[in-house]
Amino acid sequence: MNLMKSIRKLGAVAGTAIVVSLALAACSGASSTTTPDATPPSAAPSASSTGEAGASHNDADTMFAQMMIVHHEGAIEMADLAVERAESEEVRSLAEGISAAQGPEIEKMTSWLEAWGEDTMSMGGMGGMGGMDHGGMDMDGLSQEEAMAELAGLSGAEFDRRFLELMIAHHEGAVEMAQAELEDGQNTEALALSEQIVADQEAEIAEMQQLLSTI
């Protein structure tokens, strides 16, 4: 009698083990069927590799962004003065356009420098560019401070004429700096902005030369 109870007990245990085994096999099968639908880890681009590609740059890119920020700030300073003082509506409109276009470009270049881990630059950090003789950073031999001082002493048509002359020289400097970036730079965004600066500022130079002929 005791023997029969033991046999029945062993049979019940074995049956339970078989049920558990079948359940585990079913779960394993369900898991394997869903695996192909998931994106393999190797197929998805890693955040680190994508970030490294976006931040790829060289010394020319860094110098371009740092110096063009300062250069643009100088143009905006001159343009804002022209918005206040220009006699000609055409000159005032041109100045407004320069200020509106170059502000966002400063923000873009600043964001690059921060992403690259490079120092950001500004006129405040460089003493208003006073005394600098870097290529493209002076206007008719004048520093930013000297140009602003001269413009501050003018009014009427004299102001308009001198503003246009100085801004033409300023734009020519920006074109020179952008062309140097196109030759030596590496970062794709910086190169694209350089091309845009060359196109935009050469067009504005032509417009300013036309305005000069009417004053």
UniProtKB/TrEMBL annotation:
PROSITE patterns cross-referenced by the UniProt entry: PROKAR_LIPOPROTEIN (PS51257)
Domain called DUF305: residue spans: 61-212
Keyword Cell inner membrane: no
Chain residue ranges for the region called Disordered: 30-57
Family matches, as InterPro entries: DUF305_CopM-like, Ferritin-like
Pfam families (alphabetical): DUF305
Biased composition (Low complexity): 44-56
Superkingdom to which the source organism belongs: Bacteria
Keyword line: Signal
Keyword Signal: yes
PANTHER family: SLL0788 PROTEIN (PTHR36933:SF1)
Protein name per its UniProtKB record: DUF305 domain-containing protein
